[in-house]
Write a structure and sequence with these properties.
heterodimer; A: alpha+beta; Beta-lactamase; 6-stranded antiparallel β-sheet; 5-stranded mixed β-sheet; elongated; B: mainly alpha; 3-stranded antiparallel β-sheet; globular
């Protein structure tokens, strides 16, 4: 009843007024709510719609298969597989699909493949409690073929148990060439921070070819994008090709289920692009032979490089191909990808059965960890042919001889007198031949490896010119091989010595760290601080074989040869060839030091090296066999073939092998015979000393071969 | 019994205490608005129950009977049952003379108090709270029925004292009527239901014509307390949330919020502080409502809700589901229908000249209105998250009964009023 102005308001009027006030309050509240709704839905709508999509849509990677690594069979020139991806089978169990029969299934699995049935039952009941009936519970990773067959034969009695194949890296040659393959491992958190190219769980090549060609081998991961429930984890099965198995429901949508059995719709899917293959220059049989040679050595430590060189006759288009590059001791890269790497090994290398006590023992480690931590101190993870340096000893005389001839300090006929020792100031250096070689020229000095000749030549050249020529010849600088973490070696110079000793011994007097004249004398025969890698030794030898050109070694066949212009004159080259041929061929007294590498009817050049690793004072008084192993000299031998197609060079480093001539050079012969007889059984061809059309080198070689066979016939 | 007699002698001769013919005289506008809200509620719940099937455009293959069973067992099916029971309950209330029910107010009030005590001892314990009484065939939430019981009790009390509500003692007595059930409910504990009783009583006292200062005296300490809380929260923030430094400060009356409580307030203001735990629901609520945009994602296609990113979307947060699927257009329409419903209810209350009827209708409107507005304000992020169902939309039997009792009561008051003039 409305109140009128002409009478006193009653209590009922008051109540009416209050009700109207309440109505007004309602309008205010609804207005506020509507304004807020409009703000959220109209003004901010796009933003929140985007957020909702982000909640809903999840992307899961589909891993690309890693590219295959091929080597080659040099005999047939066909590729052989070195590293590929096998299917590793993992066994899973889905609780929902074996409902009421879990006990039976678990016991049966225990019998069949020896898993812990109780642990699996506990796992199942845990998922039951969380109502995650559809979770794929891993039963056993990477089961053996035998187990796989057993499980599949019994599959009718194992409901809910299924296998999933996933690609796993496999190195078919195992430890043969293992360090060249390198190994793979999961990306670390630190590495993830530095790149946005990778995601958690991606694999990376850690060394060798796997690391060098990571970007080619890795391919491109695909992804599968799904709309998921809150905290839903899609349970996708993969077929043996790594493709997700999906179901199409009635509405035509592609679906999978999550761990609680809810439907997860697959919105779209990008298929992965597999990694591209890499074809290596390695001849695996030669590689195996080289490793057998290393294994035959006392102490089994060393490195062998076999590289194709080139020359005018046979052309340069294969120059630089690494045919074999062995390093001992090595490792089997499979250890890093398959369960064999988890085997526990104690300090002495014996396998220890897994037990809680073994796990607590700090001396017992997995094979994988032992390798990575270099537990036996043998630097197995390093390839000694290009990642480790050593004193070159006499093989360095090749570089000094080239420097002396090119700088005009000596010529073919210039001689020095070798009385068996060399004095400079108060110091005295011995030649390895106590009685001395008498008057000797460069050819003979190389052939018999006369130290005194090179002491004199080194003194006359000076350190600067020696170092400069060494660098030009590829020593002390990276060879440019397409493998990671290459060591550059070191050719000492006065600046280097000042800096290095100043850094290492800050208290050392400036006089002591200055370059001494005696340092040059040491350098002249490859001692002192001079260190090179076996690969650099091979490049040095290849320079003499390949008409004075510096060859860049390579291992990826697709990379192609890189051969420099000649760095020395033809005269120098001829003298060097003569000297180095004499090393192997000179059978009159005094005989060449590398005569053990000689093969009848084959033009071989070589140079031995015996590099002291400790002062003579420490062991000079001992008979050879009583010298402690770690003090014995390194044995070197570099050799090259001139008259075979393809011409190869070999560098052998036999650590603590005592003598280059007796320790290392026989292996050169063994490898050359093996290569030319077994791997490359072409007819021997002599250098005819005539013009050869380089672009038709192969045709010329064929013609020569035909001519030769005619003559023989 | 004397009370019933006094009520009865007011009747005109041809109207009985129980007269189903009254059903034909209801206010059809309010009935229509009720129907709109009830249908909107059922539709939303259907989406909440079967959204996944609607989304994929594929029916599940349970067969007709199986589908029927599934539907009957779903939130939607049960809510439909509650609605039918509620309609019957409302029809019964309309058929009865509301003054009979008002005179029974104290009895209802005492029964509810007894039930609240019983639930304290025999209630079913869920998550450390005793809120439900298991009657064997159904479960009851006595705290829900405290709302209509309190309305009837106060309508009886305030119509008796009339203008004397301005007397401080009689005013305070009304507050005590509220405090007893509120305290019992608070002990369950069910804070949000206990809180609802306060505004209902205040609105009824306000309508009954108490003096404004009496309301202010009640509200003022609350405002002061809010000021103190604000002071402490800003102090806490200014001290870079250093707990020790904050605890070293002293505040008037020794009232001090614990750092944990301040954290909750800060999280309400800025949910991003703790997006995975305390701020999670607030953030997801905003995303759910906001992502509906103007026209919504489509019926049954709410991703935030059906994919479980937002919890409780079938009960307290159902308005978010509505806003997500129907967009601003749908959410605003429902808000406006609620407003229209309340305007009509208040108009019916005002048109009733008999004080107890007027108070009854206002009280019932207050119950519905407060729930509706508080729920919507929470969902859009204007108030901190507390459990508050939305009338007609939220799933829940006891609250649906409360809702339908309130609707029936408002209609019943209207039906009788013209015979009272």
């Amino acid at each position: 009843m409305p109140a009128t102005s002409d009478r006193k308001p009653t209590h009922a009027d008051l109540m009416d007024r209050r009700v109207s006030l309440l109505s007004a309050a309602c309008y205010v509240v609804v207005t506020l709510i509507l304004l807020r709704l409009a703000y959220l839905q109209v003004v901010m709508g796009d933003f929140y719609a985007d957020q909702a999509i982000r909640n809903l849509i999840r992307s899961y990677p589909l891993k690309a298969q890693r590219g295959i690594i091929y080597g080659r069979d040099f005999k047939t020139q066909r590729p052989v597989v070195l590293a590929s991806n096998r299917a590793a089978f993992d066994l899973y169990l889905v609780p929902k699909e074996c409902e009421d029969r879990e006990e039976e299934v678990c016991r049966r699995l225990e019998q069949l493949i020896g898993i812990d049935g109780d642990a699996l039952l506990d796992d199942i009941s845990l998922h039951r409690e969380r109502r995650e009936y559809f979770t794929q519970i891993p039963v056993k990773q990477d089961i053996s073929r035998v187990d796989l067959v057993r499980v599949e034969e019994m599959s009718y009695a194992l409901p809910g148990v299924f296998t999933v194949a996933r690609p796993q890296r496999r190195y078919l040659y195992g430890a043969v060439g293992g360090q060249i393959m390198g190994y793979i491992g999961e990306i670390s958190r630190e590495e993830l921070k530095q790149t946005n190219d990778y995601t958690m769980g991606d694999t990376l090549g850690r060394s060798g070819v796997e690391q060098q060609y990571q970007n080619i081998l890795r391919g491109q991961d695909g992804r599968i994008v799904m709309s998921v429930y809150n905290q839903g984890i899609p349970q996708i099965r993969y077929d043996p090709f790594g493709n997700p198995v999906v179901v199409t429901d009635k509405g035509g949508a592609k679906v999978a289920t999550d761990q609680k059995g809810r439907r997860v719709t697959i919105e779209y899917r990008d298929d992965p692009v597999p990694g591209k293959p890499i074809e290596l220059t390695l001849d695996m049989e030669l590689q195996r032979k080289a490793e057998e040679c290393l294994a035959a050595m006392d102490g089994q430590r060393g490195a062998i490089v076999v590289m194709i060189a080139g020359n005018e006759t046979y052309g340069y288009d294969q120059a630089g191909q690494i045919l074999a590059m062995a390093s001992s001791p090595g490792y089997d890269p499979n250890v890093f990808v398959d369960p064999s790497g988890n085997v526990l090994v104690d300090d002495t290398g014996n396998v220890v059965p897994p037990s809680p006590e073994a796990r607590r023992n700090p001396e017992v480690k997995s094979l994988r960890r032992r390798l990575l931590e270099d537990a036996d101190g043998l630097r197995r993870m390093r390839h000694r042919a290009y990642q480790e340096r050593a004193f070159p000893g006499s093989i360095y005389k090749i570089a000094v001889a080239i420097a002396g001839l090119e700088e005009g300090v000596v010529n073919r006929d210039a001689t020095y007198f070798c009385p068996g020792h060399f004095t400079l100031g108060n110091a005295r250096w011995a030649c390895h031949k106590a009685g001395g070689h008498g008057r000797i020229n460069v050819v003979d000095a190389l052939a018999v490896s006369c130290d005194v000749y090179f002491y004199n030549l080194g003194r006359d050249l000076g350190v600067e010119r020696i170092a400069d020529w060494s660098h030009r010849l590829g020593l002390g600088v990276a060879t440019g091989i397409d493998l990671p973490q290459e060591d550059t070696g070191l050719i000492p110079t006065p600046e280097w010595k000042e800096e290095y000793y100043g850094r290492l011994f800050p208290d050392m007097s400036p006089y002591d760290r200055r370059w001494q004249r005696g340092d040059t004398i040491n350098l002249a025969i490859g001692q002192g601080d001079c260190k090179i890698t076996p690969l650099q030794a091979a490049v040095l030898m290849a320079a003499v074989v390949t008409d004075g050109r510096i060859v860049t070694p390579y291992i990826n066949l697709a990379r192609g040869p890189r051969v420099s212009e000649p760095v020395m004159s033809p005269e120098t080259l001829a003298i060097l060839r003569e000297g180095l041929t004499q090393v192997v061929a000179k059978d009159t007294y005094p005989r060449g030091t590398g005569i053990r590498a000689a093969i009848p009817d084959m033009h071989i050049m070589g140079k031995t090296g015996t590099a002291q690793v400790a002062s003579m004072r420490l062991y000079g008084h001992l008979p050879e066999e009583e010298i402690p192993y770690h003090l014995r000299s390194h044995a070197w031998f570099v050799s090259g073939v001139m008259d075979r197609n393809p011409p190869i060079v070999i560098a052998i480093l036999y650590e603590h092998g005592l003598h280059g001539s007796s320790g290392a050079s026989p292996y050169s012969k063994e490898l050359m015979e093996f290569f030319y007889n077994e791997r490359c059984p072409e007819q021997p061809v002599r250098i005819a000393g005539r013009e050869v059309d380089l672009s038709r080198a192969d045709a010329a070689a064929d013609a020569d071969a035909a001519a030769q066979s005619e003559r023989d016939g | 019994m004397t009370q019933i007699d006094t009520s009865l002698h007011l009747f005109e001769g041809h109207i009985g205490v129980f007269d189903p013919k009254n059903l034909r005289r209801v206010d059809w506008v309010l009935v229509g608005l009720t129907a709109v809200l009830a249908i909107a509620g059922l539709m939303t719940l259907y989406s909440a129950s079967f959204g996944e099937y609607i989304r994929a455009d594929a029916s599940n293959d349970l067969g007709f009977l199986g589908s029927l069973q599934t539907v009957a067992a779903s939130w939607f099916g049960r809510q439909l049952a509650y609605l039918l029971v509620g309609v019957a309950l409302a029809a019964l209330i309309i058929s009865l003379d509301y003054r009979l029910l008002v005179s029974l107010g104290p009895t209802m009030y005492i029964i509810v108090l007894i039930l609240l005590v019983l639930v304290h001892f025999f209630g079913e314990e869920v998550n450390g709270a005793r809120r439900w009484l298991d009657l064997g065939f159904t479960k009851l939430q006595p705290s829900e029925f405290s709302k209509p019981a309190l309305v009837y009790m106060l309508a009886w009390y305030l119509s008796r004292i009339g203008e004397r509500v301005q007397n401080v003692f009689l005013f305070a007595l009304a507050l005590i009527f509220m405090a007893i059930p509120a305290g019992l409910i608070f002990l369950q504990p069910s804070l949000s239901v206990a809180i609802v009783l306060a505004p209902i009583v205040l609105i009824m006292l306000f309508t009954a014509g108490c003096r404004l200062w009496q309301i202010l005296v009640l509200v003022l300490p609350g405002i002061l307390l809010a000021g103190l809380v604000w002071w402490q929260v800003t102090d806490y923030e200014r001290l870079n949330q250093d707990v020790d430094a904050y605890m070293a400060k002293s505040y008037p009356l020794g009232i001090r919020l614990s750092p944990h409580q301040i954290d909750r307030i800060l999280t309400f203001r800025d949910p991003e502080r703790d997006p995975r735990d305390k701020g999670y629901q607030a953030i997801q609520m905003k995303i759910t409502v906001g992502s509906g945009e103007v026209l919504g994602k489509g019926y049954g296609k709410g991703t935030q809700t059906h994919f479980k990113f937002l919890p409780e979307f079938h009960t307290d947060l159902i308005f978010a589901l509505l806003a997500e699927e129907w967009g601003f257009v749908g959410a605003a329409a429902v808000a406006i229908v609620f407003l229209a419903f309340l305007m009509r209810a208040l108009a019916l209350a005002a048109s009733c000249t008999e004080p107890s009827g007027s108070l009854l209708a206002v009280g019932c409107a207050a119950v519905l209105g407060f729930h509706a507005f508080a729920n919507m304000a929470i969902t859009v992020g204007l108030l901190p998250v507390t459990g508050m169902p939305l009338p007609f939309l939220s799933y829940g039997g006891s609250f649906y009964m409360t809702t339908m009792i309130c609707v029936g009561t408002i209609l019943s008051v209207h039906v009788r009023k013209r015979f009272l003039q």
